[in-house]
What we know:
With 169 residues, the chain is an alpha+beta fold. The chain contains three helices and eight strands, in the order E-E-E-E-E-E-H-E-E-H-H.
Amino acid sequence: MKITAGLTAKKVFTLTGYSAADGWAITGTLADGTNTYTLAAGVFSGSATAWTLTIPPATTTGYSPGDYALYLTATKDSSPETALETSVQVVALGTISHARKMVTALTALMEGASTKDYVSLTTPEGESITRLTPEERIGWLRHYQKELTKEKSAAAPGSTGVKIIQVGF
C-alpha cells in the first residue's frame, strides 16, 4: 500500500473472521521505528469481511515519507487481536516518479483496485493502460519495475548518480 502525504488514502482490507456485523471494530497503527501514527476506528468502515480504511488529506499531510508497518487491531468485547500486518510506503506529494506511478497503476489494475486516476495514464506508445491485454500489462509492469529499481539505486546513500556503461568487443 502507498500513502501520498496530503492526499486521501483509501484501501480495502479483507479480514476474515472480523465482521462488523459481529461487533468487531478495527483500529490501526502506522509505525517506522521513529514515527507512529494512530488510526482510530473512525477511519475504518466495515461490512461482512471487508474493511475500508479512508484517511483524509488533513491527516496524511502530517505523515513523514518513508517505509512503515501498518498494524490493524480488531477489538470485540474489549479483547484486542492483531488482524493484519502489512507494509506501507508514505511518499511526499509531488515526488512520485513516473515509474512509481506506473507500477502503482498497473498493479492496481491487475488486482482489480484501479481508480479513475489511472484512466489517463498511457504507455510510451500512447496506449491507455486500461485497454492493455493482461500480457501487455505484465510486460509494462516489468519494464517500470526495472526503471524504479534504477531510480532507487541512483538515490541510494553513497551513490554517485553516475551511470557506468560497459562495452564489450
